[in-house]
Design a protein that fits this description.
This is TetR family transcriptional regulator. One of its GO terms (molecular function) is transcription cis-regulatory region binding. Keywords: DNA-binding, Transcription, Transcription regulation. InterPro entries: Homeodomain-like_sf (IPR009057), HTH-type_TetR-like_transc_reg (IPR050109), HTH_TetR (IPR001647), Tet_transcr_reg_TetR-rel_C_sf (IPR036271), TetR_C (IPR011075). It comes from Streptomyces showdoensis. By secondary structure, the chain is mainly alpha-helical. The protein has two domains: about 20-85, Homeodomain-like (Arc Repressor Mutant, subunit A, Orthogonal Bundle), CATH 1.10.10.60; about 95-205, Tetracycline Repressor, domain 2 (Orthogonal Bundle), CATH 1.10.357.10. Helix content is about 65%, strand content about 0%. It has ten helices and no strands. Helix 1 crosses helix 2 and helix 6 packs across helix 7 (about 130-145).
Length: about 220
């Protein structure tokens, strides 16, 4: 939630892994750039490893050996995007931090290039388990990177200390992704501001605090 990507942050590998160096790194960069270009121009189902190899200027055997399939290319692109993401905002207030998060999502999804890439990636995740797992990992990484905004807010007295940071952040970005991926409505700054306002109100009401377990005989 969060571009989350090359727009104002940029994308690269599973967190905690060592990036390859030298020619291997250059080949990976060329292939992933070609993959992003292809997704920006067309849908996932048109992604062809042979064409990606030609566009990247590398051998077809290299692409098939390392990435295996269109799903493998998309999965590695998502890992790349997660790696290259910029750190979360620190504006000095919870409202400012959540607004920065919402604005980042909005910029990403409304950008002609990156919006098309995310549409293709979401479509890929809907029909391929590997892509779905990697998309889930991408967003978990992004949420974790933004989670400190809740701890800082709690320290300032803006949030209950037991607020679930990930649920708070999901509440900000979920309405935007719903409009983008499900109802396919135009996204505006007003939508982002509304999501932030709603998330702040819900947090103040304790909606993201852990619920006590129900006792015996309690429905």
């Amino acid at each position: 939630m969060e571009q989350e990507t090359r727009l104002s942050e940029s994308p690269s590998a599973v967190p905690g892994t060592v990036r390859p160096g030298g020619r291997t790194a250059k080949v990976r960069r060329a292939v992933l750039d070609a993959t992003e270009d292809a997704l920006a121009e067309a849908a996932f189902h048109t992604l062809n490893p042979d064409r990606i190899a030609a566009a990247a200027g590398v051998g077809k055997t290299t692409v098939y050996r390392r990435w295996g399939s269109p799903a493998g290319l998309v999965a590695d692109l998502l890992r790349d995007m997660a790696e290259q993401s910029l750190p979360a905002a620190d504006t000095g207030s919870l409202a400012g931090d959540l607004r920065a998060n919402a604005e980042l999502v909005l910029r990403t999804l409304t950008d002609p290039r990156m919006g098309a890439v995310f549409q293709a990636v979401i479509a890929a995740a809907a029909c391929d388990e590997e892509c779905a797992r990697t998309l889930n990992g991408f967003y978990r990484t992004r949420l974790a990177e933004w989670a400190p905004v809740a701890a800082r807010a709690a320290a300032r007295g803006e949030l209950p200390p037991d607020t679930d940071a990930l649920e708070l952040l999901r509440a900000v970005s979920a309405p935007l992704y719903y409009r983008f991926a499900v109802t396919r409505e135009e996204l505006t700054a007003a939508d982002a501001e509304r999501a932030v306002t709603a998330a702040l109100a819900a947090a103040a009401a304790g909606a993201f605090a852990p619920r006590p377990a129900a006792g015996p005989g309690v429905d």
